[in-house]
């Protein structure tokens, strides 16, 4: 994403750490659902610590 003349400033980065490659598509679908939920995305951006972030994401990805 981006190019040599455009600098991006991401606010949220998702890293996939999946042991079963067969579950990659399912996880990507879940991440797309999170990205499309503006309210949840704003809560993720304003999370204060890992526990708070885990509480927001755990019901969505498990």
Write a structural description:
It is a single chain. The protein is an all-alpha fold and 62 residues long. The protein has helices at residues 24-36, 38-45, 50-61. The radius of gyration is 13 Å and the shape is globular. The protein contains 3 helices and no strands.
Q: What order do the helices and strands come in, and which of them pair?
A:
Layout: H1 24-36, H2 38-45, H3 50-61
Radius of gyration, in angstroms, nearest whole number: 13 Å
% residues in beta strands: under 5%
**Oligomeric status of the shown chains?**
single chain
Following the backbone from N to C, one meets helices and strands in this order, namely: HHH
Which percent bin holds the helix content? 40-55%
Provide mean pLDDT, rounded: 90
How would the global form be characterised? globular
Number of H/I helices: 3
Low confidence ranges: none
Helix-strand makeup class: mainly alpha
Largest sheet: none
User: What is the tally of beta strands?
Assistant: 0
Cα separation of the termini: 28 Å
């Amino acid at each position: 994403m981006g190019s040599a003349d455009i600098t991006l400033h991401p606010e949220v980065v998702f890293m996939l750490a999946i042991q079963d490659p067969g579950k990659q598509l399912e996880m990507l679908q879940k991440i797309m659902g999170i990205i499309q939920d503006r309210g949840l995305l704003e809560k993720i951006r304003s999370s204060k610590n890992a526990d708070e972030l885990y509480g927001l994401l755990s019901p969505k990805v498990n």
